Amino acid sequence: MSKKKTILRVDGFSKSYEEGKMAVDHLSFDVKEGEVFALIGRSGCGKTTTLKLLSGQMRPDGGSAYIFGERILGPHERLLAGHDKIALVEQDYNLFDYQTVADNIKYPIRRSSKKYQEYRLNELLRICQLEDYKDVRPKELSGGQKQRVAIARAIADEPPVLLLDEPFSHLDMALRSDLRRMVKNIAIEANISVVFVTHDTHDALSMSDRIGVMSAGQLIQIATPEEIYKKPLNRYAAHFFPHCNVLTSDQLKDLDVNVEKGHYMARPEWVKVVDAVEGAHEATLIHIDYFGNASYGEWKVSDKCHIWVHHDSFSTFQLGEKRSIILKDNVEWWKLDD
């Protein structure tokens, strides 16, 4: 299999809004051809600012970005802000409400031949599952349908890079799943590199080829979804996924785990609840978060040691119940950088 080439490269992006406060701080990463790259982080970490810098809508204080090796010009260097090889879909969609879905999608290619416009329109209606809404106006559409129209319009003129700002934040879980699959299919079928920002770990894990974890304007880890989940670099990256067990070496002594000083992590599904056996530790169930297909139980081992455990949907544990907990076979506590 041939190695995919780099389409987008970011080299030392920096941007500050207030003196002494960096919104983006010497950010560097690259995106491969057809890759879906997620930037995750809490509100205010610099995700959206990064997209605006990448799209050429905002001027960086330092650093540059390159597409196909060509530097992306800032708004101070172009008559019109933006870049013709990079498309940005923002959270408000910016659709033309007085035009039909078809007119919205064809707008970026309005100067192309009528034949190509119709060909591209029909292709995008199919890819974005909008065949039944061709003649409908955006104001009559749901949020998920508007999102699909905005994406279809953004990729109408076949940009090699698509930027998405919190693309699923306003949608319910079922629609989020459909749109995640659609975006992934677009990246594969149209060979478009996708960069999207989100604070939702399900979005990042389910559709990304790689994830960049952002904190305070910096990238603290870039890795595959599996590596980010199983081997987070530090406590911030570990806690970005809910119900994470992060314990100190002192707390682990209550589990008879003797390790060097530091912080250690175990995901809830790495732990199991068992009847009393040798090597297990008695714990009391004190809280349950129920999600239908599974639940997460908080088990108290001691006053200073509580463990989250993933329970399958058939579990019938009751609050106050006492059992023993133990790490599953071939699993160890993962040491985090402090």
Task: Please name the defining characteristics of this protein.
Rossmann fold, ABC_transporter-like_ATP-bd, ATP binding, six-stranded mixed β-sheet, five-stranded antiparallel β-sheet, 2 domains, OB fold (Dihydrolipoamide Acetyltransferase, E2P), 18 strands, single chain, 338 residues, ATP hydrolysis activity, alpha+beta, 9 helices
Rounded mean pLDDT is 90
Percent of residues in beta strands: 25-35%
Classified in CATH, the superfamily of the largest domain is: P-loop containing nucleotide triphosphate hydrolases
From the N-terminal CA to the C-terminal CA, the straight-line distance is 38 Å
The largest sheet, given as strand count, sense and whether it forms a barrel, is: 6 strands, mixed
Structural class: alpha+beta
For the largest sheet, list the strands in their spatial order: 6-7-8-3-9-10
Number of helices: 9
Overall strand count: 18
Describe the oligomeric state of these chains in a short phrase.
single chain
Shape: globular
CATH class of the largest domain: Alpha Beta
Description:
The chain folds into 2 domains: 6-232, P-loop containing nucleotide triphosphate hydrolases (Rossmann fold, 3-Layer(aba) Sandwich), CATH 3.40.50.300; 245-336, Beta Barrel (OB fold (Dihydrolipoamide Acetyltransferase, E2P)), CATH 2.40.50. The chain has 9 helices and 18 strands. The mean pLDDT is 90. It has helices at residues 47-54, 101-106, 114-127, 143-154, 173-189, 201-207, 225-230, 235-239, 249-252, and strands at 6-18, 21-32, 36-40, 62-67, 70-71, 86-89, 161-165, 193-198, 210-215, 218-223, 245-248, 263-266, 271-274, 281-290, 294-302, 305-312, 322-327, 334-336. The protein is α+β, with helices and mostly antiparallel strands and 338 residues long. A 6-stranded mixed β-sheet has the order 6-7-8-3-9-10, with helices on both faces. Strands 13-17-14-15-16 form a 5-stranded antiparallel β-sheet, with no helix packed on it. Helix 5 (173-189) links the parallel strand 7 (161-165) and strand 8 (193-198). Keywords: ATP-binding, Nucleotide-binding, Transport.
